[in-house]
């Protein structure tokens, strides 16, 4: 009996310690062998690697259902679940991992600036260190191809589109009033400080189905997710002062910036062509609060500013010139949350509220307008696998605009409108391989004001031709409501429409980038009216149309010369429109045929200095000369400007900064104003519309107090 029991125990022990051999070969989808792939049973130490023939073999004492893992760098991990007895003579084919850094990217029409971007045409530092930008992110973007130089305006004009056709978003939520108010021939600036942003995506066309109500372009600004340390930033400038502070805790942080600008001292030293009664003055502040949860990040962003000024400006039809007075206040609040729901699903939600108030006095006319706007968005993302990602969401826009008009001739008049827009979108990223990818989407919008429903398809494809180059194609249909200055007079209209066709080539080598992009845009349903200016007595319709076509080039090189970084951009634009009060189809007066920008930055180690230059050239813009037959029948002379800047590191945390715009003093002309009536010889007198100042000088001292005692504000200048 004892012998029988011992035999059973012995046989059982042999059974428990029996080994199974797992073997096979590993190749890629092209049949090429993979040497050094890792193969193992999940949860055990049993495994092996492939040899020079792509073969592997190892033994294990595990039994039953197990999980076999095969992995190799730049390839998707292969998983096999099954009974271990079937894991013999395996033929494993690994697919390329489409999420690696060298994989194809969907880049048509898009420029990125951010540490998380695969290909950065701009860096966060560039956005505010460009010599001509004067610390304005919009000014830096105007050095990129696809933008048009309208020096007296300051907003983004993209590929034959008006400035209203470019929409700006902060953390995915739209900004309804992105620019500070200004007066004629004085460029505006972006309302929001670049200090709190670390990522920027500028799309010149063909953008995602997630974004609507933009005919030409979207600019996406992302606030800093997590500051690296507590610090205080102090700035004393020739035009005012700034103060910023960041506090950081274990799972939350808050950053606050305040700015006061007053041009009275500057104008006392450097007078301009305006007769200032009260020089430009603005007070602004903004804050962002961040809170990390177990599964996501909550951000609360708020900004407020108030601006006022008064002046008189020359006008050929008024002997006493024109008095212009403005008081403006603007409040913007933005909240957003992004988080993970489970292994495959993530969610984004956000909302914004904008309150804008303008009080204008022009000669004997008083105008007061108030705008209240809301934007809410909810978006879900399903990461099915590395090759297929699905996005879906909905959003809601609500705008209430009201204007009161008074003058000495007519009784007080009230204008306004309320518009609610509901939209939904669905989009998919499809990566067939590391070299071929698609993005396809569909967006639907319903305008309660127009009782109109529009459907906008979007599609883009990218193909990687080599390790450094790729081609991209994009198509999209886009809708946008007419501007407030139209809708306040007439709501019997419908959304305006464009179609984009884009072909792009991009070459990305070590610290060098080249882009070439051709495009065609077709405009339909543009608003026309039959008076000199849009007014309550105008007749409006959607019979306008137009087109824009061209080619853009961009080259950036930070490798060829030590401490030198430069980029060159050139745009060729052919565009015509028949809209507004145009008599016939013509090149609009905000469009340049040729635009060239050259930006350079050089760090001089011995001088502890960074010097930069920015040169801009733009061919002449159209205007109507009533002394000659035709409409928009003449062009201004070309625009030229060379700007220089210099940042000197007094110490690691103290910087002295100076810049000069248009250092050579080019006499640029923005256009011409003609008399309303001809003289006795039948000629209409004219005057040139000149910039308020040919040059602008800036000097500032910037001091940072931080934990590491090394940080400074060079990335903000």
Overview of the molecule:
It is a single chain. This protein has 717 residues and is mainly beta. The protein has two domains: 2-94, Immunoglobulin-like; 110-716, TonB-dependent receptor, beta-barrel domain (Maltoporin, Chain A, Beta Barrel), CATH 2.40.170.20. Helices cover 5% and strands 56% of the residues. The strands form six sheets. It has a 22-stranded antiparallel beta barrel. β26 and β27 form a beta hairpin. The longest helix is centred in the first third of the chain and has 15 residues, at 2-16. The chain is globular and about 110 Å long. Residues 4-16 and 114-119 have low confidence and may be disordered.
Instruction: Spell out the CATH superfamily of the largest domain.
Output: TonB-dependent receptor, beta-barrel domain
The name of the CATH architecture of the largest domain is Beta Barrel
User: Would you identify the regions where 5 or more consecutive residues have pLDDT less than 50?
Assistant: 4-16, 114-119
Q: List the total number of helices.
A: 5
Helix and strand content put the structural class at: mainly beta
| Percentage beta strand | over 45%
Overall 3D form: globular
Q: In CATH, what is the class of the largest domain?
A: Mainly Beta
The domain tally reads 2
Helix content: under 10%
In short:
With 717 residues, the chain is mostly beta strands. It contains five helices and 38 strands. It has two domains: 2-94, Immunoglobulin-like, CATH 2.60.40.1120; 110-716, Beta Barrel (Maltoporin, Chain A).
